[in-house]
Specification:
Distance between the termini: 13 Å
Largest sheet: 3 strands, antiparallel
Number of domains: 1
């Protein structure tokens, strides 16, 4: 795990709800941004998201659900 990823994980997982902007920050911190297709990232987030923000209709995901999905299907991660 990258050393700079640990503070980012702690910051992300203090949030109750993660929106697309938070997801992109997390993703870019964990993976290189070169060759990153914004449409693919947006699609991936919409697939993972489990609710809509009632104020603006944007997709969002509960941090516990995101952590579960990452632990089940992603690279190894510790609980934060």
């Amino acid at each position: 795990m990258k050393l700079n990823l640990v503070p980012m994980l702690k910051q992300i997982f203090t949030l109750k709800i993660i929106d697309l902007n938070d997801f992109i920050k997390f993703y870019v911190n964990h993976r290189l941004a070169f060759g990153l297709n914004p449409a693919d990232l947006n699609y991936a987030f919409n697939v993972l998201s489990d609710q809509l923000n009632p104020e603006d209709g944007q997709s969002q995901i509960n941090h516990e659900n995101l952590l579960f999905l990452l632990q089940q299907y992603g690279e190894h991660m510790n609980d934060y």
